[in-house]
Amino acid sequence: MSETSENDYDVVVVGGGPCGSTVSTLVAKQGHRVLLLERESFPRYQIGESLLPATVHGVCRLLGVTEELEKAAFMVKRGGTFRWGSNPEPWTFAFSSSPQFAGPSSTAYQVERMRFDKILLDNARANGVDVREESPVSDVVEDAGGRVTGVVWQDAKGVRHETSARIVVDASGNGSRIHTRTGGSRQYSEFFRNVALFGYFRGGKRLPAPNRGNILAVAFSSGWFWYIPLTDELTSVGVVLMPEALDRVRGDRAEALLSLVQECPMIAEFLADAERVTEGPYGKVRVRKDYSYIQDAFFKPGLVLAGDAACFIDPVFSSGVHLATYSGLLAARSINTTLRGDLPEQRCFEEFEARYRQEYARFHDFLVAFYDMHQDEQSYFWRAKKVTAGLGSDLESFVELVGGGSSGEGALVSSDRTAAFQELADFVHRPVDESGEDRDLLRTSLARSVSREGVRIQVQAALGENADEYVPVREGGLVPSADGMHWAPPVPRES
Ligand SMILES: Cc1cc2nc3c(=O)[nH]c(=O)nc-3n(C[C@H](O)[C@H](O)[C@H](O)COP(=O)(O)OP(=O)(O)OC[C@H]3O[C@@H](n4cnc5c(N)ncnc54)[C@H](O)[C@@H]3O)c2cc1C
């Protein structure tokens, strides 16, 4: 059966993961007609369960799903606990160590992706996106000049459609082939060529409060384990194997996972009284090649790649959903600006690509240093400061990076300073410690934020540079518009 759709759209988005839902919602909110085509029927399984504050309090706030996420009662994550590097003892970082993630924005969630992704997709629908599930896209359509003008897809009844759009977004993740239509190819990292093996357990131990919701990452001789508490009972456990250990995933996967657990004492101890889930969507032990890659072009006329379709980086800092949703926001700005006719398409998508590449590069460059197991955590924090050119302490720079906030994007950190002011007020009104210990006012997040702002202004004054987000990230670049949903040329500075 074949049918040509009578209905054409401003934008067609391929894929209903976090990236597709983000970009489609933020474009539809501007009044544009958006069709989202998703191959699967939701809820569907996906890996990538540990989120960052920049996603939860930044992009999810813009999408308007904050209350839905609260209602879902996902496990609250305050930071990460690592047995990693030369320190034989586990060490922990808290997102609250950075003034960027003050008050309530100092946490993120561990999510069952089946539930999280459905919340975002339903929200896209509620915001006017025409969402079609069980509707795989097989190809894009190009005009004689090579511009992408639409997509070919099949609906749930097997009817073939060809739908045109002014812009097509490939948000189909790592698996589909649409990215090849940019004319470029994926460049695979020489460094991150790992394979992940993962499953789910009931009854695993928890870290002591207040860190019971933290992600736990434990390095051992063949690679490293993640241990993500999804609920009080359910834990996601996966091992990322170095290339030398790849033959361990051949044969029975469940046996391989259990035997690798026994080689990692800390994870074996956490799982001592636990049982592997063997039924339902969590019953399978899965393998994913998680080679890091980056596409050599993120767009061509009429087509833009975002989320995993454009690039993927090793999961040790749980950056995947952050990169997917942040790139969704950046792509939405470019699309909204192009559709409104404010600026040429090429310029808008160059801005998208420059910013997305920059965020990817920060994680990539830091992760290369993080895989050097001969260093301790202080050295990793120092490295984060170098990679991000952070103005705060080494630890603050590290937390800003792994919390998803080092781009300096106001949209990714909570604009709500009420909690920080409350923290300061509580502090000032608290009775003096009976032990006579000094009350360290400078430790409150607002005070740290103010002192950091002071440093920033001093740097600006000294260098004559504005470190603000309203200054482009590159020469000739654009800045977010006042509404945050478009790009605008920077306002020239007075000399
Ligand atoms: C081992 C491992 C562990 C990870 N751990 C984490 C973590 O802890 N935290 C984290 O943030 N990230 C993690 N990630 C990364 C995370 O899984 C991804 O970065 C994230 O899901 C990307 O989102 P996306 O929207 O770009 O793509 P996806 O989530 O892959 O969504 C793409 C959607 O497109 C659909 N689709 C595909 N092809 C088509 C087609 N032809 N037509 C229509 N629809 C199509 C798919 O069905 C899917 O729903 C991990 C990844 C790996 C491999």
From TrEMBL:
InterPro entries found in the cross-reference section: FAD/NAD-bd_sf (IPR036188), Flavin-dep_Halogenase_NPB (IPR050816), Flavin_halogenase (IPR006905)
GO molecular function, one term: monooxygenase activity
Superkingdom per UniProt: Bacteria
Gene3D superfamilies, per database record: 3.30.9.100, FAD/NAD(P)-binding domain (3.50.50.60)
Signal peptide as annotated in the record: none
Family: Belongs to the flavin-dependent halogenase family. Bacterial tryptophan halogenase subfamily.
Protein name, UniProt field: FAD-dependent oxidoreductase
Organism: Actinomadura harenae
Native organism taxonomy: Bacteria, Bacillati, Actinomycetota, Actinomycetes, Streptosporangiales
